[in-house]
Write a structure and sequence with these properties.
27% of the residues lie in helices and 35% in strands. The chain is of the alpha+beta class. Strands 1, 2, 3, 4, 5, 6, 7 and 8 form an 8-stranded antiparallel β-sheet that branches. The longest helix has 11 residues.
């Protein structure tokens, strides 16, 4: 099973032939710019399409702290995304309160553990919308 840096490497080397399908769901690669270092960081994340956008969840397994990639995109919302062999720039934003319930349901249908993660933490786990830049 691919995970972490190995997951990113195999996904990039095979244009998603390895790594896009993962544990019964699908993943994309999200590249953010480090808010302190300025370096690029790439993270594999479970996703769903939502119209022309893509949704990901900043769960960190229910940790009390947000994942680093989420903190990075809050500082710089312009990100790079790879879905299979398609690469594009996107702007990220946290789902608005009125958007989140529907989006959360979409994401928990493909990864039910998100509900379990939310019970482990007092922080509200964000759903992030990735909107393609033209």
């Amino acid at each position: 099973m691919l995970f972490g840096k190995e997951h990113v490497q195999r996904y990039q080397e095979t244009d998603g032939a390895e790594g896009h399908e993962w544990n019964g769901t699908t993943t994309l690669l999200l590249t953010t710019t480090g808010r302190k270092s300025g370096k690029k960081y790439t993270t594999p994340l479970i996703y769903q399409r939502h119209g022309d956008s893509f949704l990901v969840v900043a769960s960190k397994g229910g940790d009390p702290r947000h994942p680093e990639w989420y903190l990075n995109l809050q500082a710089d919302p312009e990100v790079e995304v790879q879905v299979k062999d398609e690469k594009f720039r996107a702007r990220a934003h946290t789902a608005l309160p009125e958007e989140k319930p529907e989006m959360w349901r979409m994401m928990t249908r493909v990864w039910p553990d998100y509900d379990n993660y939310q019970t482990k933490t007092d922080r509200e786990i964000p759903v992030v919308v990735l909107e393609r830049l033209s």
